[in-house]
Amino acid sequence: MPMLDRGLATAGTHGAEVVPPCQHCCHEGQETRPAGDVPDSSLLAHLYLCRGLSTYAIGEVTGLGRQRVTRLLHKAGVPLRPRGAGRLRPLRREDPPGLRQLLADWYEAGRLSSPQIAALTGIPERRVRDRLRRYGFAVRTGGGWNREDRRIVPAEVLDELYTRLGMSADEVGRRLGTSRNTVLRSAHVLGVPVRTGGGAVPVPGPEEIELVAALYADALIASVLRARDIPPAPPGAPLWQRFPDPVPLTVPLVKDLYWGCGAGLAHIELLTGQPSMTVRGFMQRAGIPLRHPGGRTPFLRRWSASRQAAEPSRPSPQAHEDPADGLHRTRADRPGRPEIRQE
Length: 343
Known about the structure:
By secondary structure, the chain is mainly α. The protein has 16 helices and 4 strands. The longest helix is centred in the last third of the chain and has 13 residues, at 298-310.
């Protein structure tokens, strides 16, 4: 097999130079221990240059000491590699022609994964990912928490079903064959206003929220992001397009956003580009405790209170009634109170 040198100056050869075959290459596998005290220097050179053996391995094959092998190779004019340089490597094949365009068509346009491309081309997956980075392609994150392969409901579909027709997130999900969380996550990341108070009990406060804009408008969150030079990423695109390079998670950043600002895991996802499950796993590894599940986050309660304070007060239906009317009502006549009868 033709061998490539490591390209070291002390070896006296260039990195792309192939070692020429010698007389012993025609009798590969027939090397024997040299007879007598005068070993064949050409055999040692063949073992060192052609077969790529180290001086230790040559000593084991020939029965000579390593130092003696080194002296004989020097005497024969064989350039020796420095210790630790490693053995000679086989001549590697060139990449298939058109591999860059193939990766662009399959990986970027077709959204195929690197294992799928490896199965179709016969190239090892590790080499596929290496070529993606070498050719400058943005490699997608792997695993079940990746950001790029998430399903996104288009903005025009949300505007038609959710905004104009007034369907709930559950109804939109059933119509499209997806989950409620996917509908709401798509609406938040694309900047579609989401109705609040969707539970069985109406919650007082603003009726709609544009979550990304509300997060960046919050004073506490804005101060944390400014202190760490994290620029805002406006809504209107999927998460992986808003954050081609996600913001690295650090313990101070996550603590400030989660406990200092009262943001939730989904909110940190929208602010950093890191999936919420990645944020949860980071907090568990870092020993950052989680709030009890259920209820609104402190950020949403703060946002709702600020919006209520900014809106003009709405007159209640009883504001136009005569205050004296209530003085003459019996307990049974008062609204909302059951009548209590004496037996």
